Amino acid sequence: MVIMTTTSSLTFLPVLERIAEEMERTPGRGRAADYIPALAALDPRRFGMAVAELDGTVYGVGEWREPFSTQSVTKVFTLALDLAREGDELWEHVGREPSGNPFNSLVQLEYENGIPRNPFINAGALVVTDRLQTRTGDAAGELLAFLRVESGNTSLDFDQEVAASETAHGDRNAALAHFMASYGNIDNDVPTLLDQYFRQCSITASCADLALATGFLARHGIRADGSRLLTRSQAKQVNAVMLTCGTYDAAGNFAYRVGLPGKSGVGGGIIAVVPGRCTLCVWSPGLDERGNSVAGVAALDLFTTLTGLSVF
């Protein structure tokens, strides 16, 4: 079922219906993230998709109001919150280049003296969370408050089961954090940082929530209440890094197929931005071997094909 809230949505409604129909017919939808026990039991064929316009109008198909585990999708918002506070100084501690390696790889850190390639691989996200923690005293709480306000959903919260599950299986993230700390690129003690990071990744939200919360990137840095979070240049920077680094080591293929800034998470969600027009979120838990939602990428590919909306 498609729900429309304003007549301005009419141009997208047939597109969303068509996408939902195509996804329903698509076999081979990948596998849920089995290395996080709390996510492993999800049906990979579940699907939802939402579009939010610049004025906050939001509508969708499938399970677009169903909360899911946001996981690495939240890295975009943590990046924006820290960039708004410290500006270009952040880029002295984390790079802006695609990694070409798995999102939890240790290999490049030693070659590059503890400076992660980009903010969206796990090492880079740990650095950004660490810096936001230094500036706020509660990075995960700051993120949650931001998402509640931008989405308009005050019930958004952490999923304690998912956070505990990730903590119990977080040895590689701990290794990344300790390794970067040995190079002086982590300010806080590692247990505190890991707690903040796992809580951040455990937030549950729906496609509607995340499409709305991402709107500031389509509005060139302007929040839902009209205040400015990022400069226009900073919003461009975040969108650019999303395009080149937002889907792990499959970012080139995502840019080729979809042509939009996007960020995925192993919970099956992907957010995407059409600057100056709208934001999208799609969710389907079945992942490919790179950790991206199979149906999610296909749905966004079809969206840009049918609408002609891309950054190219």
Fraction in beta strands: 5-15%
Question: Could you state the oligomeric state of the chains shown?
Answer: single chain
| Structural class computed from helices and strand pairing | alpha+beta
Q: Name the overall outline.
A: globular
State mean pLDDT (0 to 100 scale).
93
Report how far the terminal alpha carbons are from each other: 31 Å
The tally of strands reads 8
Helical content stands at 40-55%
**Strand count, sense and closure of the main sheet?**
5 strands, antiparallel
Spans where pLDDT lies below 50 across 5 or more residues: 1-9
Rg to the nearest angstrom?
18 Å
H and E string: HHEEEHHHHEHHHEHHHHEEEH
- Helical region count? 14
Strand order of the largest sheet: 2-1-8-7-6
Keywords, separated by commas or semicolons:
five-stranded antiparallel beta sheet, 312 residues, three-stranded antiparallel beta sheet, alpha+beta
